Amino acid sequence: MGKSISGKELGKGLGQRKDGLYYARYKDDSEKWKEKCFKKLSDARNWQQEQTYLARHAVVQPTASDMTVDEWFSYWMDTQLTGLSPNTQRNYRERYEHNI
User: What is the pTM of this model?
Assistant: First the structure.
């Protein structure tokens, strides 16, 4: 638990340097600490929460060298086009089939 200059507890991964800047830290996927400094404590907290969320919910996307064009199109339709209307999805599929 980090502390401010005045001795107040700031939370896990948060602290204040002697020059007055706040820092936020988190562990990435490879268990290495990443750190960034901020002028405001709220900015440090927000950054830490955002980075922690992104590290835990990262979607591993396949590389282009591992896939054929057809496999990539199927992956794209299943993952990136969710929430679109069926007509829009049909138009994308037909355009792919006729032009590619």
Answer: 0.55
